[in-house]
Amino acid sequence: MEPPTRAVFDLERVRDTVAPVLASHGITLVDLEWITERAGWTLRVTIEREGADDAGGGVTLEDCADVSRDVSSVLDVEDLIPNHYNLEVSSPGLDRRLRTAAEFARFLGRTAKVKLARPAPDGQRLLRGELLEAPEGQVAVLVDGKRIAVPFADVVEARLVFELTAKPKKGQRQGKEPAKESGQKKQLAEAAPRSGSKRSERGSEKRK
């Protein structure tokens, strides 16, 4: 199946349109993507709860479903996207992507994987380790006990690494608290199908 022709529309207008909807739920926008898949085009909305301090963003499946319903309604009214598409609303997940310098700073001390466009000073293109403080315009990672700093512009992709903490044996002190069950999996909801299409088990449906 050939991928559909890319739709021409203003993604920033879509961003501005959904922002008040998210705010009404106490939710902030992490990312907005327009991507093509075998099933067609998808508008992917990644959200987190305002003030959340966990990597998963503090949102539940119910939050995603509520936001998906209301975003779907406002996009129908505004009619900003001219072709068929799927709407997907999800949390960042515990392996969330890091896209901005602010996000790197927010998750200092956490383990991350950082893929580089060119080798780091030690020759590595993929750094895995603890995120450290770094001067503006740089990213620093503690890899095998060695601090490696690279330009932020060289980062192709970066993600947090979810590490499940083992249950301590009797008599041992527990270190980090294990992640809460509700945050261990990426929460995701998709808008319901329209125009007589059948609802799937995941609740996905095509818009327009």
Largest sheet: 5 strands, mixed
Q: pLDDT average, as an integer?
A: 81
User: What is the rounded Rg?
Assistant: 20 Å
How much beta, percentage-wise? 25-35%
Helical content stands at 10-25%
| Broad shape | elongated
What is the count of helical runs? 4
Secondary structure: number of strands: 10
Question: In terms of structural class, how would the helical and strand content be classed?
Answer: alpha+beta
Indicate the low-confidence ranges by residue numbers: 1-5, 174-185, 192-206
Query: What is the N-to-C succession of helices and strands?
Result: HEEHEHEEEEEHEE
What gap, in angstroms, lies between the N and C termini?
A: 20 Å
Question: Could you give a quick summary of the protein structure above?
Answer:
The protein has 208 residues and is an alpha+beta fold.
Plain-language structure description:
The chain contains four helices and ten strands, in the order αββαβαβββββαββ. The protein is α+β, with helices and mostly antiparallel strands and 208 residues long. Strands 1, 2, 3, 9 and 10 form a five-stranded mixed β-sheet that branches. A five-stranded antiparallel β-sheet has the order 7-6-5-4-8. Helix 2 links the parallel strand 2 and strand 3. It is elongated, with a radius of gyration of 20 Å. The N terminus and C terminus are likely disordered.
List keywords for this structure.
single chain; 208 residues; alpha+beta; 5-stranded mixed beta sheet; 5-stranded antiparallel beta sheet; 20% helix; elongated; disordered N terminus; disordered C terminus
